[in-house]
Amino acid sequence: MAIRIDLAKTVKPLFCESKWWGDPDMPADMEYPMMKVEGEEDYPLTFVCQIRCEDIAALDPEGLLPHDGMLYFFAAVDEYAGYDSPVHLGIGEWPKGSVIVKYTKSINMETFQSFIMVDDDDQPVTDEALEMSFSSCDDQADGIKLLGIPFFEEVRDQYPDCVNLLQIDGDETADINFYDSGMLNIMVSRTDLDKGLLKRPKTYMHSL
């Protein structure tokens, strides 16, 4: 079974909790991921979400994902969230470095720091963090989910040996859309997944 992710607006502080958007809470020695863009300064990838792994442990009986620590997703999705971007990544496979997955084995609220992106006037530029809730869903489900397989048959056929790490569907609460009816699938080979290697994702966007 896959794990469905539902998002909700909240006023609760979500420091070191599962959250979508907002600012990542990371160990002090973890670097914020950047993407090299030709002719430009390095481009900071958008923080998509962090998942406190204990929140999904009961929904992952096979132990495909870690059950402790924090899992982070960063991606060059500014364009699809309504912002200007120095890169355009459309339908098809996205290049290496456009999506970064990070993981830390433990969470320490005393030493973790929120990495806050600011503009030239030192004003925060990130969207408000959204609360995440998790439930079981079919492997082939649409929507935002962890694990399972991509919803679109075309993506499944192209990556038959991959497991879906994170499927991002258009979502009104998150205010993100991939063209009219598109989805972004961040996948990892089953061999890498079995070895716990989550940092070599393959990413593909498809739309009707």
- SSE order, one letter for each helix or strand: EEEEEEEEEEEEHEEHE
Q: Would you report the number of β strands?
A: 15
The helix-and-strand class reads mainly beta
Shape descriptor: globular
Number of helices: 2
Which terms would index this structure?
mainly beta, 34% strand, 208 residues, two-stranded antiparallel sheet, globular
Describe the structure.
There is one protein chain. This protein is mainly β and about 210 residues long. It is about 5% helix and about 35% strand. It contains 2 helices and 15 strands. It has helices at about 155-160, 190-195, and strands at about 1-10, 20, 25, 35, 45, 45-50, 70-75, 90-95, 100-105, 115, 130-135, 145, 160-170, 180-190, 200-205. It has an 11-stranded antiparallel β-sheet. A two-stranded antiparallel sheet has the order 3-10. The chain is globular. The model has no long low-confidence stretch (mean pLDDT about 95).
In short:
The protein is built from two helices and 15 strands. With 208 residues, the chain is mainly beta.
Question: How are the secondary structure elements laid out?
Answer:
Elements lengths: L1 E8 L9 E2 L4 E2 L7 E2 L7 E2 L1 E7 L17 E6 L16 E2 L5 E6 L8 E2 L15 E8 L7 E2 L6 H6 L3 E8 L12 E8 H5 L7 E6 L1
Antiparallel strand pairs: 1-11, 1-12, 2-6, 2-11, 3-10, 4-5, 6-7, 7-9, 8-15, 12-13, 13-14, 14-15
